[in-house]
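Changelog entry

Holo records now carry the ligand SMILES as an explicit input line rather than a separate metadata file. Below, a converted record for 2-acetamido-2-deoxy-beta-D-glucopyranose, shown in the new format.
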Amino acid sequence: MKMNPWTLSVLLLLAGPLGADPDWHVEYPDSFCVVEGSTATIPCSFTHPKVHQGTGAVVERVERVIWCHSAEYCIPPVFFGYDSSNLRADSRFQYLGDLVGNCTLKIIKTVKRDTGTYRFRFVTNGGGYTGTKGVRVNVTDGEDVKIRSSVADNVVKEGGQVTLTCTSACSFHQLDVNWYRNGHTLSETGPALHLSCLTNDDTGNYTCSLDPSGQKPSAPWSLLVGEDEGRHKCDSDWRLTVSVVSVLLAVFLLLLAGLVFTKRRQAQKKSSDVIQKQEVDCKQEAVGASEEVSYSTIHFKRNTSRSAPGPEHEIVYSEVVR
Ligand SMILES: *[C@@H]1O[C@H](CO)[C@@H](O)[C@H](O)[C@H]1NC(C)=O
Ligand SMILES: *[C@@H]1O[C@H](CO)[C@@H](O)[C@H](O)[C@H]1NC(C)=O
Ligand SMILES: *[C@@H]1O[C@H](CO)[C@@H](O)[C@H](O)[C@H]1NC(C)=O
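Structure line, unchanged by the conversion:
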């Protein structure tokens, strides 16, 4: 889990007296798995302790950062890991972090003996602090990679489905799994490969690998997609879905149309009531105002739109008809 220092300090504030020392903290994942030969980037974040001076709190200045292997407090000298004050240490260990809150460590070209618990220590002008929980790093050779399948039999009917899972001693939180069919890379990456609507094209030998270069693949798992009604079934499934969706859509549209129609009827009834009333009210005024009537008539004719005539038009129209 990655945490930025801000979230961390909020959490620490919330934790309050429960935390041993709420002034500082080192946060890394519990464990980290990497395939031998590849690069591990271990996320890490830390917060500074504060020195209280009079009224305000002043953040201490970090002067030295250390990553050590299998030592509880990372007290120098560090022979295996990283020490910002002794860069002659193993150069495969690179510090990607900074001196203010990021302590990310990179291990290049991991080897089996890198396996172990790593801890981060920072030394400030006020003292030294070690995140003793540490992060367990497992370097796997990728040789224990296996494929597990969701079906007992390697023969699956056309149109059927199967899920393959790539497993190893490593957990896969930080890993991309590569999948291959007859040695050709598939676009899917992830611990599970889900194959559905199987066709004859899916027949083949499947392998997975934890290594991006595809080295040390798992033992192959061969899939044979059987002929016959399978495909038909898959197609009809698809057709069924389409027809269900269209029926639902049609019902919805009908309901909508009904609703709109009813609303309109109500509105028309209402407005015709109003018009009738207005007609009575305005009759006196309209009679004799011939100029206005003819003008309105022209206006109405020009406005040939089929939209429901407004009250004015209606009145004028009835006057003209008369
Ligand atoms: C810490 O630094 C690494 C490497 O520069 C970067 O990838 C990562 O996002 C940083 N982490 C945080 C929390 O900023
Ligand atoms: C690392 O290895 C130990 C012991 O072999 C195991 O218990 C742990 O689950 C492994 N961790 C990961 C992330 O694979
Ligand atoms: C899959 O592997 C088997 C042997 O394990 C082999 O006989 C078969 O030809 C392979 N299939 C393909 C498509 O390569």
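Spot-checked after migration. The domain at 5-140 is CATH 2.60.40.10 (Immunoglobulin-like). The pocket of 2-acetamido-2-deoxy-beta-D-glucopyranose (ligand 1) is lined by residues 2, 4, 45, 96-97, 102, 104 (CB under 6 Å).
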